[in-house]
Amino acid sequence: MLKGFGNFLLKELKELIRDPKILLGMIVVPLIMFPVLGGIMSFSMQSAQESASKTTMLVLNHDTGVNSTEFIAFLNSSIRVFPINASTIDEVVPMLPDYNATEIIEIPANFTQNVTAKTVVYVKFYSVYTGAGLLEGIGSSIIDAIVVQFNRDIAPDILVPQKSAIVKGKIIEGVDPRMLANLMISQAIAMPITMMILLSYSMQIAATSVAMEKEEKTLETLLTLPMDRFAILAGKLSGSIIIAGVGVIAYMIGFNFYLGSFSSAIPSGAALDLEALGLVPSLLGYLLLGISLFVALLSALALAVIISSFAEDVRGAQSVVGYIYPFVFIPSLLLMYLDVNALPLPIKIIIYAIPYSHPIIAAKAVTMGDYLTVGLGIAYVAAFTLVVMYVASRLFATEKILTAKLKFKGLRRAKKGTTEEFQ
What we know:
The protein is of the alpha/beta class and 423 residues long. Helices cover 65% and strands 9% of the residues. It folds into two domains: 52-175, abc type-2 transporter like fold (3-Layer(aba) Sandwich), CATH 3.40.1710.10; 183-416, no CATH class. The protein has helices spanning 5-18, 20-53, 66-76, 89-92, 96-99, 111-117, 138-153, 177-215, 219-224, 229-260, 283-308, 314-321, 325-337, 345-353, 358-367, 371-396, 400-403, 409-422, and strands spanning 56-61, 80-83, 103-107, 121-129, 159-167, 170-172.
């Protein structure tokens, strides 16, 4: 009933495997990309450990007794501690950058008295919120571990931490920085995932549009019409741009709703207003974020048009566009976990050089009010987009758009041999 099925299946598998676009897009790229992603995860965990080991704390000690000295020595055995000579906590906050510190502890004047009397002593801890990503709460976790260790070894159940956050240089009393970091984790995940989805779908749309014209032999007809070649390219891009623009608007609406929904996750007893804390982007921030996302999409569409012009059909176009995906997925996943400013300089340069990193960086930057970073990113991606569009226009201005192909002679000869063998 299925006579010849086995031979035909073998022939089909050989052709698919020997197709260079499939070989590279579905086999070689994953073999490269997943080890790189594994390296990213390993690097993220290593960075987290290094960040924990390099945690620096400033100490404002109002107590002159022996127990506070003992407590500072206990802290110094786990993290780097710098005693600060100041009267109030407000004087200490501006000193944080000078020591590259992210934590402040304020020891009350009655510390030694209460420890000696074995009564509860409240110690204030302040953690800087930087919006770095999924590893934001490391400092607060270290403090918890130190307090537990101190209570167990030296002063059983006496030390009670009172945590507060420092957001954009302002002290937010009573706000647990780890709770704040947990609330903002969704934002750190949402933008990279959205970027991966928007870019992959948009590039597939643009690539399919060009490939269908070549596959159905209608591109030759278009090129013979009395119209500017660049008008054809502009028309191709404009259709995809409109779709991408709608996607950007939908994202911005959803992103705004997403941030607003965080309030439902806040415990009823915690007075935590993200907008009051300045962790909700302003109107200017939303505008810059939308522009950053739009120019990144535009560059991806133009690049997809160029790459897909080297394909002979729709399937080939979708395969060759897959070569761009690692440049979207790898920085997206990396920036989920790490702050770009905490990366080594060579990796930081690579991340900034990839245009599709900038919308993700912009999402964090507008939240923290860093509009300069967003503006520079928009300028760079816009320049990259202009270069790509110029290359695309030059390609459409010649007959190469009809004849351009990715040539893999060895693989093509093997493919041809397989077909002849089957015949």
